Amino acid sequence: MDRVIIVAFVVAANLLSSHRKDDEEWWDHLDRAEAAIEAGSAL
Fold it and tell me: What is the torsional sign of CA 37, 11, 8, 16?
């Protein structure tokens, strides 16, 4: 079970770092993703 948790963190980190803009830090990308999720849940 521990391996599953580690893999989940590695996959999430990889997605955050690979789908951000070049001039953007990963936490800024995470903020944009969170804002999009919150905007979608308001519909």
Answer: negative
Distance of CA 5 to the CA centre of its chain: 16
The token pair at 27 is 């936490």
The answer to whether 16 and 2 have CB atoms below 8 angstroms apart is: no
pTM above 0.90, yes or no: no
- Mean of the per-residue pLDDT values for the chain? 85
CA pair distance 13, 30, nearest whole angstrom: 10
Q: What is the Cα Rg of the chain in Å?
A: 13
Asked if 7 and 13 count as a contact pair (C-beta separation under 8 A), the reply is no
